[in-house]
Amino acid sequence: MQIYDDGDEATVNIGNVTHHHINPYDPDMSHIERAQWVTDEVVEFLQSLFDDRVFLWTQRGIGRSGMQQPYEGAIPDDLPDDADLFVWSRRVERTG
After folding, report:
1. pTM: predicted TM-score of the whole model, two decimal places
2. Per residue in 63-83, is it b (16+ CB within 10 Å) or e — as a string?
3. How many whole angstroms separate alpha carbon 81 and alpha carbon 69?
4. Which of 12, 19, 40, 85 could share a disulfide with 92, CB 3.0–4.6 Å?
5. How far apart are the first and last CA of the chain?
6. Across residues 32-59, what is the average pLDDT?
7. Are 46 and 84 in contact (CB under 8 A)?
């Protein structure tokens, strides 16, 4: 995992799987308010990720990927059949 400070936002790269942009999209925030908001949101996202509340998927070789949060155990129906599915701590297997 890598976290990048992109100035007005942060980008969290999760391996070769996917990435997540964290940006308040509020032009009226001061630099200090924005920095605090982004920091708080990065910490909250990481807590969710490490608690397996972020569902991740990727199609190797194709470059398609994504995530869903909060993850509460249901696998989205619209994912490609050949996608690798997982949360931070483990692979997730399709049932049915």
Report:
1. 0.88
2. eebbbeeebeeebeeebeeeb
3. 20
4. 85
5. 32
6. 96
7. no
Tokens of 78: 């619209």
Contact 56, 85 (CB under 8 A): yes
Give the model's pLDDT for residue 96: 62
- Among 38, 44, 3, 40, which residue's Cα sits nearest to residue 23? 38
Classify the C-alpha dihedral 7-8-13-17 as positive or negative.
negative
The alpha carbon of residue 41 and the mean position of all alpha carbons in its chain are separated, in whole angstroms, by: 12
C-alpha 57/C-alpha 70 separation (Å) is 14
